[in-house]
Design brief:
The complex is a heterodimer.
Chain A (H helix, E strand, L loop, with lengths): L1 H32 L6 H19 L7 H23 L4 H23 L14 E4 L2 E4 H23 L1 H11 L1 H6 L4 H23 L9 H15 L5 H21 L5 H15 L7
Antiparallel strand pairs in A: 1-2
Chain B lengths: L1 H29 L3 E7 L6 H20 L11 E7 L4 H14 L2 E6 L3 H14 L3 E2 L14 E2 L5 H15 L4 E7 L2 H17 L2 E8 L7 H10 L3 E5 L2 H14 L4 E3 L8 H7 L7 E4 L7 H14 L5 H20 L4 H9 L2 E2 L12 E2 L12 E6 L2 E6 L12
Parallel strand pairs in B: 1-2, 1-3, 3-4, 4-5, 6-7, 6-8, 8-9
Antiparallel strand pairs in B: 10-13, 11-12, 13-14
């Protein structure tokens, strides 16, 4: 029994690391720019396809391709902020919601047309490998993904707390107007926030590729969990999103194990509802 | 005079030539082409397989025509009229209607997916045009007179899967995991109902929601159940994750992946070496007979891949239609329907099915129809069950 629980927790923790990369991006954009990016999942998908084609065309390892997928997505992030989001910032919420929603649909359908709905899988030497100790196993590809996800989160935390730009971003997220009065250029800060958030989505894509097939709708699978994690971990709170993602991964895994394989999400949403009832602003409030 | 004679010779020559040619021209007129409709989803979610079906359908017609067409009708050639049913039931209805009313059709074949074939066969029934199909739904054999199913039915698939689990061990303990919509639920319920009769114990029966992020927890559960055989009723994406996770866990369990997406070359491409030894069921396989192997060589030359279940069966179906026209000595759809109903063949491409015999019962079902159990061995799909259809021994993992 204890063995089963431990294995379930290991599984949950590992997939939670991937949820974290997606949700940290969403919460960062919300915290700093105050908009919800519905297209975050589609950027994960773009990251996956970049990784897939680098691997099949140039033989690049998915983990190495992080150095391509992250910068490419960072630049796309700057572009999305500069050409799209900046235009709707002064307006009310509706155009902002529809902008990222439309972007999501557009990317998804272009991908369906250009890339076809077929699944594409990568095989690396570590794709099907696992470490075994005691009665437990830890899949290598997921362990790498988890490790890199935690490392990137730590780097982001250090960046936000020790650099001027990072402090400016936190300032803008706490109070945009006051930050502006203190001489912070909001558009520069917003662009960097978008860039970082999308780079994290790209990283999630690269890290997923060794063990998850790429297809145009793949982003939708991960973005739902990301949104729940963002709310659970208090909107705009990076550390909260991280902790919430890991908790949700574990809750889902335990749910599948002990309630039913089609009810993993029941436990996740139960966790969300109870948290909101007790702490309405989320875990990190 | 000389001039006249030359003129005469010229005219006489023309007349003689015309007289000599006349029988051929006449035969040409008599041998009208025979229109056959092909309904396949070449766009939409089933496009991948639908397009492969179209390739096979064209190849089959070419084979019939190159061999002299329908001899009883003066060597009349088959003319395939294709229509894209777009993986959509509504489109299937309108396209079948359009195809039948817009062309003088002798027969129709299609549509790969049972959900689409059910609709098309309904339209054909009303229009009194025979339809022949490799779709497996048992519903296709209920209350229809123009629908012919030369291959195994869905209920037979479940039975074969259960019997195959006994190849792995004397006391099979089966874990059934299935995606929780109509496809997964109905297939797995069939397994559950038949299991006691086949002496198979089901130790785990677990629905899951398709499109999960991680198969780890589910496989963890399978491991805890103590099963030695796993039936996975899944869409391709989930099946890929399940197979990979089983290998990661190091779980020593035989896997039966069913049919559909499991028996196409793409499955192996996606799963790779982890697919080795996996079991499944199919209504046709490229090693069922020498003719099938010959066909496979030709198909491989054209496409680079082996001819999969549905495509191979489709070639056989085209020859069954041809055979029925030979016997009916007519291209009239109702007469061809009657000839199909009376068909009884055991040689040639028309009998290219597991068991090598085709004879339709009153419900349009081939009375000899049965599935073959298949296994992935060295990148190829090999028939391993039942004994009389097995081409290679079972590979134990």
């Amino acid at each position: 029994m204890l063995e089963t629980v431990t294995q379930a927790v290991i599984n949950g923790l590992l997939i939670g690391g991937i949820y974290a990369l997606v949700s940290i991006g969403v919460t960062l954009i919300f915290g700093v720019v105050k908009i919800v990016n519905f297209a975050q999942g589609e950027f994960v998908m773009i990251g996956m396809y970049i990784t897939f084609f680098l691997a099949t065309q140039l033989g690049m390892d998915p983990i190495v391709s992080l150095v391509v997928s992250m910068p490419v997505l960072f630049v796309i992030g700057l572009g999305v902020q500069h050409f799209l989001i900046r235009r709707v910032l002064g307006l009310n919420d509706l155009p902002q919601i529809f902008l990222t929603f439309a972007l999501s649909l557009l990317i998804l359908n272009v991908a369906l047309m250009v890339l076809t709905p077929n699944y594409r899988t990568l095989h690396t030497s570590y794709s099907d490998a696992a470490l075994h100790f005691g009665g437990f196993y830890v899949p290598v590809a997921k362990l790498i993904a988890f490790g890199v996800a935690m490392l990137l989160s730590a780097i982001l935390w250090v960046f936000l707390h020790t650099t001027d730009l990072g402090r400016a971003m936190r300032a803008a997220s706490q109070n945009r107007d006051v930050a502006q009065l203190m001489g912070i250029n909001p558009h520069r800060v917003f662009a960097v926030a978008l860039g970082i958030a999308l780079a994290l989505a790209g990283a999630a894509g690269s890290l997923l590729m060794p063990f998850y097939p790429a297809y145009p709708m793949v982003g939708q699978v991960f973005v739902l969990m990301a949104f729940v994690a963002v709310v659970l971990g208090t909107l705009g709170n990076v550390m909260g999103a991280l902790v919430a993602s890991l908790l949700m991964g574990i809750a889902e895994s335990l749910g599948i194990q002990f309630i039913g394989a089609d009810s993993g999400l029941i436990v996740v949403f139960l966790l969300l509802l109870i948290t909101l009832a007790v702490k309405p602003s989320g875990l990190a409030a | 005079m000389r001039q006249q004679r030359r003129k005469f010779l010229k005219h006489a020559g023309q007349a003689a030539a015309a007289a000599l040619a006349a029988p051929y021209v006449m035969r040409g007129y008599a041998a009208d082409t025979i229109n056959i409709g092909g309904l396949y989803p070449s766009t939409g979610s089933m496009a991948q397989i639908g397009q492969a079906c179209v390739v096979a359908a064209k190849m089959a017609v070419e084979m019939v025509n190159n061999a002299g067409g329908v001899k009883a009708l003066g060597g009349a050639k088959l003319n395939l009229i294709l229509s894209d049913v777009q993986s959509d039931t509504t489109v299937t209805r309108t396209e079948t209607d359009r195809l039948i009313s817009g062309n003088k059709l002798t027969a129709v074949h299609g549509c790969y997916a049972s959900a689409l074939t059910l609709i098309a066969s309904e339209v054909c029934e009303r229009a009194k045009v025979p339809i022949i199909t490799g779709s497996s739904s048992d519903q296709l054999n209920k209350g229809r007179h123009f629908t012919f199913t030369p291959f195994a039915r869905a209920s037979q698939f479940a039975k074969a899967q259960l019997q195959m689990s006994k190849l792995v061990g004397d006391k099979p303990k089966v874990a059934v995991v299935f995606e929780n919509t109509a496809f997964g639920t109905s297939t797995s319920n069939g397994l559950k109902e038949l299991a006691p009769g086949e002496g198979v114990e089901i130790v785990m029966f677990e629905p899951y929601s398709a499109g999960f992020t991680d198969a780890g927890p589910l496989i963890n559960k399978v491991k805890a159940s103590g099963a030695n055989m796993l039936f996975s009723v899944s869409y391709l994406n989930d099946l890929i994750l399940i197979v990979r996770t089983v290998k990661q866990v190091g779980l020593n369990i035989a896997i039966n992946g069913g049919s559909g997406g499991f028996v196409i070359p793409d499955f192996y491409k996606n799963v790779g070496k982890a697919a080795e030894g996996l079991l499944g069921v199919a209504h046709w396989n490229h090693d069922v007979s020498d003719l099938a192997q010959k066909l496979n060589d030709e198909y491989k030359k054209r496409t680079g891949e082996f001819i999969f279940e549905y495509a191979g069966g489709l070639v056989a179906q085209t020859f069954m239609l041809k055979e029925a026209m030979e016997r009916a000595k007519s291209a009239d759809p109702v007469k061809v329907r009657d000839a199909l109903a009376a068909l009884d063949v055991s040689s040639g491409y028309a009998a290219m099915a597991p068991g090598g015999k085709v004879k339709f019962g009153p419900d349009g079902k081939n009375v000899y129809g049965h599935p073959v159990g298949v296994q992935w061995q060295n990148g190829d799909l090999v028939s391993v069950f039942p004994k009389e259809d097995a081409r290679k021994p079972l590979m134990k993992s």
